[in-house]
């Protein structure tokens, strides 16, 4: 005979959103389990039961961040032209990096900038996560070349990498205090350099 456990006394999505913010502000290594339980409003056993260990929680937090805070990236990929895809992504990214209700910068950059030697898998995980976005953008730009929306000699992989370098550089500058206007000025220059 099976018995049901006691139902959770917290909203897992809301708790995960609070974990996102803690990891975003302090990075993986700078965040303790105590920091997480305090922010999430749960005790250690509940954290482990619902989210696993710190590494698993971080991975889920990055997934939640990609789903919620980076929804603009998916929206940009649906734009009709390569220029609109790139400009839409970079402008929405600049806005997201400087939201007053969120930490400055980007979780996928701040989360693993300074990882201890034993946590190299976190930096690798974040790099792989960013590369996934770059590959999706390159795939969209390949389609733009095939549709003659970009010149035939355009290297979609290099162009996608360029866009991501601008985005990631803006994230670093936002975390160092650059404001939205400054980031958009960088986007203006980047868009002028596009092959369309």
TrEMBL record:
Q: Which UniProt keywords apply?
A: DNA-binding, Transcription, Transcription regulation
| Pfam families referenced in this protein's UniProt entry, alphabetically | TetR_C_13, TetR_N
| Chain residues forming the annotated DNA-binding region | 32-51
Q: Which InterPro entries match?
A: DNA-bd_HTH_TetR-type_CS (IPR023772), Homeodomain-like_sf (IPR009057), HTH_TetR (IPR001647), Tet_transcr_reg_TetR-rel_C_sf (IPR036271), TetR_C (IPR011075)
| Domain HTH tetR-type: residue ranges | 9-69
Alphabetical list of PANTHER family matching this protein: HTH-TYPE TRANSCRIPTIONAL REGULATOR YJDC (PTHR47506:SF1), TRANSCRIPTIONAL REGULATORY PROTEIN (PTHR47506)
Designated name of the protein: TetR/AcrR family transcriptional regulator
Organism (species): Kineosporia corallincola
């Amino acid at each position: 005979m099976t018995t049901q456990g006691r139902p959770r006394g917290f909203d897992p999505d809301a708790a995960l959103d609070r974990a996102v913010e803690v990891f975003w502000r302090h990075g993986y290594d700078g965040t303790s389990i105590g920091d997480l339980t305090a922010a999430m409003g749960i005790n250690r056993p509940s954290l482990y039961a619902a989210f696993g260990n710190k590494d698993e929680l971080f991975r889920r937090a990055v997934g939640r961040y990609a789903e919620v805070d980076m929804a603009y990236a998916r929206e940009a990929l649906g734009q009709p032209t390569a220029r609109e895809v790139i400009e839409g992504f970079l402008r929405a990214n600049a806005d997201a990096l400087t939201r007053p209700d969120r930490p400055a910068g980007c979780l996928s950059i701040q989360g693993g900038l300074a990882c201890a030697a034993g946590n190299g898998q976190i930096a690798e995980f974040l790099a792989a996560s960013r590369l996934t976005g770059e590959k999706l953008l390159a795939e969209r730009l390949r389609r733009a070349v095939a549709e003659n929306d970009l010149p035939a000699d355009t290297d979609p992989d290099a162009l996608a990498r360029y866009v991501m370098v601008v985005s990631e550089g803006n994230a670093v500058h936002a975390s160092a205090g650059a404001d939205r206007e400054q980031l958009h000025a960088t986007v203006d220059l980047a868009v002028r350099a596009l092959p369309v």
